Amino acid sequence: MDLKKNNFTRRDFVKGSSLLAGGALLMPSLLTATPLMKKDKTLKLAIVGCGGRGTGAVSQALKADENVKLVAMADAFEDRLEKSFDSLNKMFGKDRVAVKKSKKFVGFGSYKKAIDEADVVILTTPPGFRPQHFEYAVSQGKHVFMEKPVATDVAGIKKVLNAAKLAKEKNLNVVVGLQRHYQGSYQAAHQQIQKGAIGNIVSGQVYWNSGGVWVRPREANATEMEYQMRNWYYFNWICGDHILEQHVHNIDVANWFMGGYPIKATGIGGREVRKGIDHGEIFDHHVVEFEYESGAVVSSQCRHQRGCKNRVNETFQGTLGTSYTDGGGNAVLKTYDGREIYAHDNEDDVNPYQVEHNKLFASIRKGGVINNAEYGAKSTMTAIMGRMATYSGKEITWEDAMASNHTLVPDEDTLSFNSIPPAIKDKFGNYPIPVPGKTKFY
Ligand SMILES: NC(=O)c1ccc[n+]([C@@H]2O[C@H](COP(=O)([O-])OP(=O)(O)OC[C@H]3O[C@@H](n4cnc5c(N)ncnc54)[C@H](O)[C@@H]3O)[C@@H](O)[C@H]2O)c1
Questions:
Q1: In the prediction, which pLDDT does 442 show?
Q2: Ligand 1, pocket residues at CB < 6 Å
Q3: What is the CATH number assigned to the segment(s) 3-180+367-371?
Q4: Are the folds of 3-180+367-371 and 184-347+377-414 the same?
Q5: Would you kindly state where each structural domain of the chain is located, as residue ranges?
Q6: Cα 175 to Cα 388: distance, rounded to the nearest angstrom
Q7: Mutation pick for ligand 1 pocket among 59, 105, 121, 147 (CB with most ligand atoms within 8 Å)
Q8: How far apart are CA 243 and CA 393, in angstroms?
Q9: pLDDT tens per residue across span 144-157
């Protein structure tokens, strides 16, 4: 959709835009009995997974509340931890980034030591480890910001759903990094759809078609486990494939706007251009049809191929009109004869990555409860179901997938850099690639 052709003036459509950041979904529960956390109480923050996103999330947490201090850091690798520490230290200084040498934890299992030190934890490792980290954080009574996806296998999803329940019982706040839920344009479009602006949704299309991401080549003397941990995007047990890792954002919008989760999925996929020695085992394209209870079908496409048309957005067709949204802050709803129902003015919208932390810390201070873990887990599960469909070539139902013992990730506490990882290469250095019709999902 070419937004320039939409012929709207920003100001004409502002009204709805300030439904904004605090939409109903984000409202803390009124039933909570959590005590207020006064502004003068310093909140101790820890991070597990000090990469690009984790470092950004700490910075957003420190900006969200002036009485937060980073006190502990954990990463599988010392060089990653120190790089993150240096950059945060430069930005915020040692009063806010108050991490003593003895509170920098490295290696497998380091998550427990960092989580133990904090009131609030940021979980930003690759997703394979998230269920174990989240489960531990909740068991220790910590508030959580965790990135998407929240697992790579069904066993992990079940762990997250159970921990989500426990978090509710303990009145803990859990924000999940599906930031479109915290973005003004998406909140406004959702609100319009709830109001019936385009009638009942009968179909949709969601996309993450792009050129792909980084590759981290094998370093001399690295063990196989170290190699997979550094080049994690290409290994399913850690990453889950890009249908999960990135496209979960758009799949999650489909679930949110549809108001439910699909009952089944069929799809096709494979790898056409992703054939290098460091490309592990993931596909470079997936196309899935998700069918919802109402009979509505949402088609999902994700592609990592350079030189093709890029597209990252969502469209839905209702009985009365259409909706278009994208991560750039655009939301446009129209009737079928082209009349604009709503077009979002994003001028005053706050960066959703910042809003996530503003909401989290405000809720902790107020004694409120935000809990995004259930929809985070179910949208991740939707993407897993899509991957099961493209890998196996079979129709996959939600019920069967959830009933399976599908497990990709070993218990982190049993791992070392000398362990044999779940993905095993052949004598030529190639990893087994899923083959539709042969690969089983369980
Ligand atoms: N919401 C968003 O828009 C968004 C954007 C980027 C990344 N993310 C998510 O954030 C997560 C991290 O992505 P990234 O880009 O920061 O990756 P990254 O590779 O830059 O960072 C991940 C870090 O986790 C560390 N790590 C791996 N396993 C660990 C373990 N068991 N214990 C401790 N540390 C461990 C790695 O060494 C690395 O430093 C992913 O789930 C990704 O999907 C979300």
A1: 66
A2: 48-54, 74-77, 80, 108, 110-111, 124-127, 129, 147-148, 177, 179, 229, 245, 412
A3: 3.40.50.720
A4: no
A5: 3-180+367-371, 184-347+377-414
A6: 27
A7: 147
A8: 15
A9: 999 999 999 999 99
